[in-house]
Amino acid sequence: MGERVGARERIRRQMVAEIKREARRQLAESGAQSLSLRAVARETGLVSSGVYRYFASRDELLTALIIDAYGAVAERVEEAVGARAAPRERWRAGCAAVRAWSRANPHEYALIYGSPVPGYAAPADTVDAAARVPLALLSVVRAAHEAGELRPPDVRALPPELAAQGRAVAELTGGGLPEDAAVRVGIAWTQLFGMVGFELFGHLVGSFDPADALFDHAVDLMADLIGLP
What we know:
Blueprint lengths: L1 H29 L6 H7 L14 H25 L4 H18 L1 H8 L11 H22 L13 H13 L6 H22 L11 H15 L3
Helix pairs in contact: 1-2, 3-4, 3-5, 3-6, 4-5, 4-6, 4-8, 4-9, 6-8, 7-8, 8-9
């Protein structure tokens, strides 16, 4: 009996993986807004009703793809920032991992960091997955702070609302990180993904193209802003 259940579960997992592969192909071909469960079923050899045994709706399939994409980029970043001792090297490696994954997976990048999919509202299930990359970057800064190595430049004081937001973000790392450091990471985080998005979607063509030198220089300027040694 146990072997039967095990075999059934293996088949289910294989089918889910096949459905996701086909869905990602459709994302690359026509975008998330055109994703169709019926088309996925047809291309994977399922009857139209068969796909609903694995995903109850297009939105449920989109959510699974979104969580997978967040997890994939997060794994790359977490591995990168954990493999080096010097804070700035860890920061550079984490940012480079974001760029490398995004360039290799532009359609999945667009799914999670591009325009919202019409008619789709991401459920709470996606929140933890989405937080992994910024938390990995924050971990580099927190480690530098705890080691007494963080030396941010003197800039203007935070307005009260932003200071409160910075405190809330710092709490996500377990506390101890100054609110202004958390805000600096927030600025760098949005800069990082904005720069990657500009590169992926062709906005640097004719100016900073290829973007290698711009990217490396900007990553170091972000590290300066944060105060990483």
